[in-house]
Amino acid sequence: MPEKVIPIRTERGDFTSPPWDGSPLKDTLGRQMRDLRISVTDRCNFRCVYCMPREVFDANYRFLPHGAILTFEEIARLARIFIGLGVQKIRLTGGEPLVRKDLAKLIALLAPLDADLTLTTNGSTLARHAGDLKRAGLARVTVSLDSLDDATFRAMNDADFPVAKVLDGITTAAAAGLAPVKINMVVKRGINDHQIVDMARHWRGSGHIVRFIEFMDVGSTNGWRMDDVVPSAEVIRRIGEQFPLEPVDPNYAGEVAERWRYRDGAGEIGAISSVTQAFCRSCNRMRLSTEGALYTCLFAQSGHDLKQLVRGGASDDEIRNRIAAVWRARGDRYSEIRTAETAKQRKIEMSYIGG
Ligand code: SAM
Ligand code: SF4
Ligand code: SF4
Question: Does residue 161 line the site of ligand 2, with CB under 6 A?
Fold first, then answer.
């Protein structure tokens, strides 16, 4: 029986971190901080079986109270400090970011900053929000869509949510100018792997990019087993047998998705192989949780509290020094050292830390 409450340990920060001297910020493995993922809520209207299993995230689950989560102004202040430290790309995520009220107001605060601004969403309310998000300054969206088959999709989101509405969201987002849309499909063997080629076929020639993601052992409630993982190599082989593919160079060092294009010119797809081909060596991502804790790895077991600095009157310099100290001390490489045993460890839930 899974436990109901997931304990989250957050280490207390202090105001006395050594000063950052302005040199490029590198961790213990020489990796530079480039991407920031900001979780704006730990809540979601879906209960995807691989992320928020309903038997854990039920009516008794204690989500964060409103007062505990960072305000838009607090997030924007931290984002500015991160950009000063070298962050070039910000992705808003969650939980489902579009369940956070007035999210476009946060976009409007972040858009003028000097970073590429994107959002990952389940697409359920995207048709309604796309215009406002674009007008507020959002550059692009990534939409999660695990199947085109309605019954499979409803079973995977476990909220009986239809595919058609997500497709509508993607069309509306593209028409609003939030294109090209990236479409994330988490592949779980025996559940939706029969949809791999259909998904590729559907989006070929659309200008949008489907990314096939290996099912990961994030958190400790999704019952992950290696047998459920469909290796990206198999995904690429299955698609390539129908539509010949060739590899494409990464857009930049440290890009998470391995890129492939159709030989007939019908566009490209991506494969995210965090289980079978770990990419820790180039991992440049920092994560800021909904309640203002810093996580240096998706598979972290504890975070570093920034909120107490933000709410305790710390100056920008003090916060900057703290973030720099956390990054410099970082040595994470979980996916490289994953075993069946580590997969069972208590880890932060994906819906809390942000995907
Ligand atoms: N709710 C939004 C969504 O679903 O797009 C944003 C948050 S969600 C946690 C971010 C991404 O993580 C989604 O694309 C989701 O499919 C992916 N994800 C969640 N759990 C996963 C798992 N166990 N393995 C691989 N990807 C996962
Ligand atoms: Fe919600 Fe996204 Fe997790 Fe699905 S993957 S439960 S949509 S946060
Ligand atoms: Fe980065 Fe951690 Fe994922 Fe490795 S396991 S790529 S360090 S987030």
Answer: no
